[in-house]
Amino acid sequence: MSMIELKYFGHSSFLARINGTEILFDPFISPNPLASAIDIDAIQPKYILITHGHEDHVADVERIAQNSAAMLVSNFEIVTWFQGKGIENVHPMNHGGSKEFDFGKVKYVNAIHSSTLPDGSPGGNPGGFVISSEQGNFYFAGDTALTYDMKLIGDSYDIDFAVLPIGDNFTMGIGDATKAADFVGTDKIVGMHYDTFPYIEINKSAAIQMAQEAGKELYLPAIGESITL
Question: Where does the Metallo-beta-lactamase domain start and stop, copy by copy (predicted)?
């Protein structure tokens, strides 16, 4: 049974606590008016995992990395770009590769999206992460379309829950997210990448109902809220 705590910071930013180690995903907090109550200088992760280079996933990486000395984990291009900004504690990865860290294993997997860094530099190919640990396993999809590659995750891992984009327009909507959950083999979806901008505003009650009709439980924590899965 998974016992992983997730704290939501809005948009696609989550802090996972695994066996006492804090891992921050895709911090876009200070530019997000919905997350104005979050004190980003109080966020002190040991690791920062970045799925792709878009501004709405990397905006606070530099500040939080400097404050916390966290290790930045992402693809080679994104890591190299942040090294140019003086971030020294880094670990580059690329698709299909995995690495053991002190909290568990990280695998960098395919995502179908785009990935350009805020200054226009190429961000390499976008990805997602599969995290496997003694406390549980989960899939953090990043921004992606539904893809058959997700079936490989279900074939290889016992996934306890999946953090999936549900905002539609730029990524999957809830309908495709329920299929993605089927592919990776979980009935628990944590929604992300919704409501931040007009393009991705959703009807949350309708999304929850659609998930239920597909046999899934959709979690939509409030910004600043922690849940344990």
Answer: 10-193
